[in-house]
Design goal:
With about 180 residues, the protein is mostly helical. It has two domains: about 1-45 and about 125-179; about 45-120, no CATH class. Helices cover about 65% and strands about 10% of the residues. The protein is globular, with a radius of gyration of 16 Å.
């Protein structure tokens, strides 16, 4: 699955205003995070995060497959599985499935459902934009208008240069995309 920047921006223009976010700001996160193949942003890229796994996930004592999937990041915004869990993605996705599906898989966090939900996430641009927007909105609500801090907390962690890289992507997105 892959999308062009224009396709991602169109989805951002639909979803971002629901969270009182500028679509160009949201697009800048995709430009920063996404794995690209030429002009395409690759949607179904998963990136394992081993340190996150050992530090945060292993102590949860979940099934192995669920643990591994929660400790990876997905899609054009590289949303961590655990962050998706914290933002309610798995519960919301499970609630959208048929009653037969829910009866079969019992729980949104079952080792059978989690991989299926992540697969659905990776092929659905609206899901990816929506959950990136939820995360960005939460960060802005917590850190205010300091977008350098918001960018660092989005995924920069211990890399201070991440905020500058994101800022460069924002400037590029502002030049390329008109609202």
């Amino acid at each position: 699955m892959k999308w062009t920047q224009d396709e991602i921006f169109e989805a951002c223009k639909i979803v971002a205003p629901k969270f009182n976010l500028n679509p160009v700001v949201v697009l800048a996160f995709a430009k920063q995070e996404a794995k690209k193949d030429g002009k395409y942003f690759l949607a179904d890229v998963a990136k394992p995060e081993p340190r996150f796994y050992t530090t945060y996930i292993v102590p949860m004592n979940l099934s192995t497959s669920t643990e591994v999937l929660l400790a990876a990041s997905y899609g054009v915004f590289q949303s961590m599985g655990q962050v998706l869990r914290e933002l309610g993605f798995f519960d919301a996705d499970f609630a959208n499935q048929s009653s037969e599906y829910q009866s079969r898989y019992i729980s949104s966090m079952s080792q059978e459902n989690v991989p299926k939900a992540i697969d659905r996430f990776c092929v659905d641009l609206q899901y990816q934009v929506e959950y990136a927007c939820i995360k960005i909105r939460k960060l802005i609500d917590k850190y205010g208008s300091d977008m350098r801090k918001v960018a660092l907390m989005y995924n920069g962690g211990g890399r201070p240069e991440y905020a500058d890289e994101w800022g460069a992507n924002l400037k590029q997105a502002q030049a390329e995309c008109k609202l």
